[in-house]
Amino acid sequence: xxxxxxxxxxxxxxxxxxxxxxxxxxxxxxxxxxxxxxxxxxxxxxxxxxxxxxxxxxxxxxxxxxxxxxxxxxxxxxxxxxxxxxxxxxxxxxxxxxxxxxxxxxxxxxxxxxxxxxxxxxxxxxxxxxxxxxxxxxxxxxxxxxxxxxxxxxxxxxxxxxxxxxxxxxxxxxxxxxxxxxxxxxxxxxxxxxxxxxxxxxxxxxxxxxxxxxxxxxxxxxxxxxxxxxxxxxxxxxxxxxxxxxxxxxxxxxxxxxxxxxxxxxxxxxxxxxxxxxxxxxxxxxxxxxxxxxxxxxxxxxxxxxxxxxxxxx
Length: 314
What we know:
By secondary structure, the chain is α+β, with helices and mostly antiparallel strands. The chain folds into two domains: 2-88, Phosphatidylinositol 3-kinase Catalytic Subunit, Chain A, domain 1 (Ubiquitin-like (UB roll), Roll), CATH 3.10.20; 91-301, no CATH class. 51% of the residues lie in helices and 9% in strands. It is built from nine helices and six strands, in the order ββαβαββαααβαααα. It is elongated. The mean pLDDT is 92.
């Protein structure tokens, strides 16, 4: 049997009154007991403090201890004290993604098919509006399917209230704003913005669609590469190689931004450009942080000439 003292990290926890406590894990040693076992015992004592809400750390290190690590590998010896922090209500990343992407899938059809309700009159949709509708719907349907059947998440949950921030990004900017813009009378087949311009040229629209399809397929390929690196139910990380990864660490982000760039150029919509800028900034920040983590974790093994997100640039 192995014992660990669990104390609050900072002020007393409302859901864990009675800390510190001594957690005992029977029939295991520091070589076989895991951080997850400690969390399970804490949850047994305080049922509302389920494992996903818990962050355990060493007294002299604020970094979270990984559930899958044994106590020995985590640097915890028999009888040692670890600190417990309540992360608050949690929700699974998979659920968050499903909710994020369902917004545009509902919003775009409502605005596209109910122009009298939205604009006060009927709208004869131009070809560019029709292409945009198809591309947006296919993109988010793909994202939903990837969430259900492809993605394997390194972190199981996130704070519950983050769902409103994350969903707002997609529901408002790529949902309401984009749809309201490109299905409006300003984009109708008789609009001066469309008539006798390249936006009603079938060759231009087909070229845009072809580049968009290339970006979407390439993005899916990158997601499959990342999936195949991580066995189900693990947080294993390996260096990705293959299509796209020879140039950048996050080709999935690059190809997604390429797809949205096509939509922005094709429509000329301010809403499309605003969403592109927001998504580009957000994903670039994520990519830079994750790229640094790759280099820190794998050191000299990580390809030194590999850029972060934009080939040959960053």
